[in-house]
């Protein structure tokens, strides 16, 4: 149902529309905050950080005050007790339920804490940039201690009945609980262990040498734009800019910002980060515009968001068929580097497995180990079992257990991610949840006859995008992530789809049997 249909003189919706208009006016401020944050990460001169922190903190206070206005609370309570909440159209019911629970949660948080969190986040991110440059951990300790302590305070305020880590997780993956995630991750870890070992020890696996060469910036920019436009990203409703840490941010219903970094010697850095961010962008551009600023027009969760980015980046972008289609375009863009390279060589090279210290450079097979490690460490800090000051040693020990080596530079270890300085605690597990969801969603799409080899080989991406629009994007936030994946695939969420997908796509390529997981 469209939001505009409710506007046509139906008096029963008067209170509902008033509550929605209020929520939408708050989302305008949220979009202004998004613009300040986008600018902070793409354009802001290094000395401009302190003033920007004050701007963002001031805006956070105004937004929080408006969001938690008493009148809106009364309106939402009235709607919650009205027949509309049980008998209205699905989108209306979900909107009332979610606006009401969001309001309850947010109004328990003091404005001062919201403001302090916003200020600390910008300052800590600026300090992080300096610390990485100087390769120093020490200056970050007080920033991170403050951030973790503020987040613990936030958890206690917004959801006093929940475990503090669950309270934080709920902001990114509504309804998720760490114990259930921990069980899923343990199964995944166990199931993937033989594949990880097999790929790393395999001597005949593909090498990424053919992906190194000369890739002039301008040619790369034109090439990646051509690729993501072809998969369906609309440049009339979005753009691509340069940053140190790629991300996708939506600043309005028709304004989706992608960012990437470039490496003129190694094509995958930009190509796969842009495909990834464009996957996020396709989801944002596929949400119902009519409901912008309201739950049916918002993403279901970060896990679902990540499922969309991973699907295009890995399940489409690293397939042999993708390279059959893309090869002539890449060869035309980079004749010097790709003249004697076949589609098959490129498709294999982008699936080489090389354990890396750096999460964002990790291959698909080892990627989830990076995430599980962060999930465990940040949870231990929130639960009071680990001190921020001890993070580097805890990090290095765990890394050695999982990967067999220790990073020697702090920026290759605990300092590599912006998430903790930014206050994104409880965010990391959504990356692996996204991988799990993406494999299950793609399997369901392919069973429906879309996203299959023949279509991708011919550059026909529209059927897959339409299927995703219809089965995932169009529902916005009206279902939880698990319910949405179950609805789209007809099966309960299971990590087995990801295990199968990784074994099938990486096992034989590294001389392993695709049936290995069944041996466990
Ligand atoms: Zn992502």
Overview of the structural elements:
With 520 residues, the chain is mainly alpha-helical. It has 23 helices and three strands. A three-stranded mixed sheet has the order 1-3-2. Helix 6 packs antiparallel against helix 7. The longest helix has 29 residues. The structure holds zinc ion. The site of zinc ion has 4 residues, from helix 11 and helix 12. Zinc ion (ZN) binds next to helix 11 and helix 12.
Short descriptors:
520 residues, mainly alpha, Neurolysin, domain 3, 2 domains, three-stranded mixed sheet, 23 helices, 62% helix, globular, binds zinc ion
What distance lies between the first and last C-alpha atoms, to the nearest angstrom?
A: 47 Å
Small-molecule binders: zinc ion
Radius of gyration: 23 Å
Question: What share of residues are in beta strands?
Answer: under 5%
Summarize this structure briefly.
This protein has 520 residues and is mostly helical. Helices cover 62% and strands 3% of the residues.
Task: Summarize the SSE layout with pairings.
Blueprint: H1 14-42, H2 49-67, H3 70-80, H4 84-87, H5 90-107, H6 111-134, H7 138-158, H8 164-169, H9 178-201, H10 217-231, E1 238-242, E2 248-252, E3 255-260, H11 267-286, H12 302-316, H13 320-333, H14 335-338, H15 343-349, H16 364-382, H17 391-403, H18 419-422, H19 429-447, H20 453-457, H21 462-471, H22 481-489, H23 496-506
Parallel strand pairs: 1-3
Antiparallel strand pairs: 2-3
The chain binds zinc ion (ZN).
């Amino acid at each position: 149902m469209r939001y505009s249909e409710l506007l046509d003189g139906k008096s029963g919706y008067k209170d509902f529309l008033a509550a929605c208009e209020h929520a939408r006016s708050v989302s305008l401020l949220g979009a202004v905050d998004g613009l300040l944050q986008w600018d902070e990460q793409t354009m802001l001169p290094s000395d401009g950080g302190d003033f920007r922190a004050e701007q963002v903190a001031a805006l956070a206070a105004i937004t929080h005050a408006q969001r938690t206005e008493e009148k809106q609370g009364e309106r939402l309570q009235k709607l919650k007790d009205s027949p509309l909440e049980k008998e209205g159209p699905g989108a209306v019911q979900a909107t009332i339920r979610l606006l009401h629970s969001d309001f309850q949660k947010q109004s328990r948080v003091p404005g001062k804490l919201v403001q302090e969190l916003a200020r600390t986040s910008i300052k800590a991110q600026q300090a992080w940039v300096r610390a990485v440059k100087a390769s120093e951990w020490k200056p970050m300790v007080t920033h991170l201690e403050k951030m973790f302590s503020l987040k613990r305070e936030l958890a206690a305020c917004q959801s006093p009945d929940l475990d503090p880590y669950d309270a934080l997780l709920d902001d990114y993956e509504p309804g998720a609980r760490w114990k259930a995630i921990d069980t899923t991750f343990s199964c995944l870890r166990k199931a993937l262990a033989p594949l990880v070992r097999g790929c790393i020890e395999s001597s005949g696996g593909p090498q990424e040498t053919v992906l190194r060469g000369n890739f002039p910036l301008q040619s790369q920019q034109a090439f990646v734009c051509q690729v993501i436009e072809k998969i369906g990203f609309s440049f009339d409703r979005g753009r691509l800019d340069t940053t140190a840490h790629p991300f996708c941010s939506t600043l309005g219903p028709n304004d989706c910002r992608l960012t990437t970094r470039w490496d003129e010697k190694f094509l995958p850095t930009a190509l796969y980060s842009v495909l990834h961010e464009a996957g996020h962008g396709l989801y944002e551009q596929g949400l119902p515009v009519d409901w912008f600023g309201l739950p049916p027009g918002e993403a279901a969760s970060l896990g679902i968001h990540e499922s969309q980015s991973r699907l295009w980046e890995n399940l489409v972008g690293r397939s042999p068929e993708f390279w059959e289609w893309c090869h002539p375009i890449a060869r035309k863009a980079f004749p010097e580097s790709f003249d004697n390279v076949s589609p098959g060589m490129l498709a294999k090279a982008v699936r080489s497995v090389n354990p890396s210290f750096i999460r964002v450079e990790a291959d698909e097979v080892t990627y989830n180990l990076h995430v599980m490690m962060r999930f465990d460490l940040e949870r231990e800090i929130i639960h009071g079992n680990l001190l921020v000051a001890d993070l580097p040693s805890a990090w290095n020990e765990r890394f050695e257990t999982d990967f067999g080596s220790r990073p020697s530079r702090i920026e290759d270890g605990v300092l590599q991610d912006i998430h903790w300085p930014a206050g994104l605690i409880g965010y990391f597990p959504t990356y692996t949840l996204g991988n799990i969801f993406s494999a299950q969603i793609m399997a369901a799409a392919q069973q429906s006859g879309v996203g299959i080899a023949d279509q991708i080989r011919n550059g026909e991406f529209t059927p897959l995008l339409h299927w995703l629009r219809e089965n995932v994007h169009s529902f916005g936030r009206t279902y939880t992530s698990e319910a949405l994946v179950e609805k789209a695939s007809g099966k309960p969420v299971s990590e087995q789809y990801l295990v199968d997908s990784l074994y099938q796509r990486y096992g034989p390529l590294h001389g392993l049997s695709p049936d290995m997981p069944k041996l466990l």
